[in-house]
Write a structure and sequence with these properties.
39% of the residues lie in helices and 17% in strands. It is of the alpha/beta class. The strands form three sheets. The protein has a five-stranded parallel beta sheet with strand order 8-7-9-10-11, with helices on both faces. The protein has a four-stranded mixed beta sheet with strand order 3-4-6-5, with helices on both faces. Helix 10 links the parallel strand 10 and strand 11. It is globular.
Length: 256
């Protein structure tokens, strides 16, 4: 149940075109819908400004399809993260409107286009090409949450001139999401150069002593640059939510 849908119901009741009983039938699944194996949070968008997102890893295709059909029927946008290609093929047979983004392992159905909001652009920066899957999860989620998004990939500290050559574009962003594996140094560099919020995303990219992203995570948590926000390993979705909320700080919600 989206904010627009609830507002329409209330306006119809106020105008007398819908009875209170009919409105109650439309609202009967608030605040969540119980599918037995899952309880869908119908008010997530209304409370937080971003929708509930399905974490596809660990769920069967049948479970994702059941949840997806319910989300789409409610009029809300559907986003499924960590959706492996073979599982995506099965899901798409049942949810034909779903667009699959293989680089991000993400599926989406947009029922209602989200109008861009926020102070400005969110820029997604990746240290290496191997970090792009996590960066793309962040970028696509941020776009689906109603942000203007720019991308700057493969500008890690092994060739820092690649970053400095793009500083004018980086400075134009309102919030920066910086994705890096290995030793995770890039967020510290970016945060040390700019006066914008930086959300750091460690990835599991790296050789043995990277410990599946733990080295990058610890490096980011111990950043010399103050004020860096760090999310969990490979959590592009979480970075997109944090950046979205930062981008909207101080902006009143629409009154109409």
């Amino acid at each position: 149940m989206t904010e627009a849908a609830i507002r329409k119901i209330l306006e119809d009741v106020a105008a007398g075109t819908v009875t209170a009983a009919a409105a109650m039938r439309d609202l009967r699944e608030l605040p969540f819908q119980d599918l037995g194996f899952a309880k869908l949070d119908r008010h997530r968008t209304l409370r937080r400004g971003v929708p509930e997102v399905i974490f596809g890893e660990g769920k069967t295709a049948a479970q994702i399809i059941a949840i997806g059909k319910s989300v789409v029927a409610s009029g809300a946008n559907l986003i499924v993260t960590r959706l492996a290609p073979e599982k995506a093929r099965a899901v798409k047979k049942a949810l034909r409107a779903m667009t699959y983004h293989p680089a991000a392992a993400l599926g989406a159905i947009v029922k209602e286009r989200v109008r861009p909001r926020g102070h400005g652009e969110i820029m997604i920066i990746s240290a290496g090409t191997s970090d792009i899957p996590v960066a793309e999860e962040a970028a696509i989620c941020a776009e689906l949450f109603g942000n203007r998004v720019a991308r700057l990939y493969d500008v890690g500290v092994a060739g820092i001139h690649r970053l400095t050559a793009n500083l004018d574009a980086v400075r134009r962003a309102s919030v920066l999401v910086v994705v890096a594996g290995m030793e995770g140094a890039l967020p510290s560099v970016v945060a040390g150069l700019l006066d914008k919020p930086v959300v750091a995303v460690p990835t599991s990219v790296g050789y043995g002593t990277a410990f599946g992203g733990i080295a990058a995570l610890l490096g980011m948590l111990n950043s010399c640059a103050s004020g860096v926000t760090v999310v969990n390993i490979d959590n592009g979705f979480g970075a997109a939510v944090a950046a979205t909320l930062m981008n909207r700080i101080g902006i009143a919600r629409d009154a109409d």
